Amino acid sequence: MVACGLDFGTSNTTLGITTADGPALIALEGSSVTIPSAIFYTPNGAPPAVGRAAIRSYVDGNNGRLMRSLKSVLGSSLINESTAIGRGRVSFRDVISQYVDIIKKQAEATSGVEIDAVVHGRPVHFVDSDPDGDRKAEEALEAIAQEVGFKHISFQYEPIAAALDYERQVNHEEVALIADIGGGTSDFSIVRLGPERRHKADRIDDILANDGIRIGGTDFDHYLSIGTAMPLLGFGTGMKRAGLPVPGGYYHDLATWSAINRLYESGVMRQLHEVRREAQHPELIERLIHVVEEHGGHRLAIDIEAAKIALSDEPQVQVLLDWIESGLAMNVDRTVLVDKTRGLADKIAARIGDCLRDAGLGPNAIDAVFLTGGSTRLAHVHAAILGTVPDARVVDGDTFGSVGTGLTIDAATRYGVVAA
């Protein structure tokens, strides 16, 4: 039997198998072991492209439909909705199924082995404060795994998987806080780790607490977009009728990766032209109409995401938006990013506090904090996490690979697999 660890993430995906040298992530796109969770459909019915190829097809202006942040629809009402692809429609559930199927086939082609079993990563909570929605999300992901050909399917919390990866470098027993700030969720585990524990098949007694919150990198994108780009398209301006604002729903959909395609549904363009006629600043609404007409929502989201990432290292970045209107650009300061998303960082820190209370531990009982996930690179998020456990040793994991590696370790333990 060959088993894999599959980290199907909101922003990126990895898949690993056990080799003679230990757990290894498989190259899924060229030489890269990390592939964006994106799929691009063409209206002519050709097989969809995934990953960087999907994003490239979209950015190059090819006719078709890009979809990203696929995992975000799990546990939401969107999972049962469909979107227009060419002259037909496809459900979001089927989109996820096609994406996972392509990833599985690519991994098998690269590794030269048929993969029978999977340990799927999952957030601690797909949906906050909704056990029924959480259960349905896992059930949907399990059914999809069966559809694409996995014969044995199990799940592991993503922060526990990251802990298994970190444990390989631990040379003495310690209590660690694992913080995984992914694209869609922030997940935390407090785990007792050590060289004498790492070979135990059952680690339930070593898990002191698990918690999570549905806040991730895409939420930071959303708040940054709403605060910077959307006012350039008319957000926050008024209608000619006194006291009536321009409807905000269009902008919130445009700033939300998983909701962008709603703007391309029939009837929306007619509504936007009506808004333009009655708006105090029709020239701004004209920019919004141009973005929607050109199916440029994901392009704008990519620009905002790139700005957010750049602000991890630079105090200010310029975002060129001349594809919307000649000469249009905006400068974004790191202070703006912090101001617009400070509340998200505070909620992440508060949930870590809940996790510590669930474990019955004070901040000084944590020996190390292990960080993984792209949004841990944001300075104010990093500081918010460390502020909850100020005396802990800080260990930066593989930003995008720790969870997938840990899931692969778990797969080898669960299924007793022989190295591929």
TrEMBL record:
InterPro entries listed in its UniProt record: ATPase_NBD (IPR043129), Hsp_70_fam (IPR013126), YegD-like (IPR042054)
Keyword Nucleotide-binding among UniProt keywords: yes
Protein name: Hsp70 family protein
SUPFAM superfamilies named in the record: Actin-like ATPase domain (SSF53067)
Gene3D superfamilies: 3.30.420.40, Actin, Chain A, domain 4 (3.90.640.10)
Organism (species): Kaistia terrae
Pfam annotation, one family: HSP70
Ranges in coiled-coil conformation: none
NADP listed as a keyword: no
Sorted UniProt keywords: ATP-binding, Nucleotide-binding
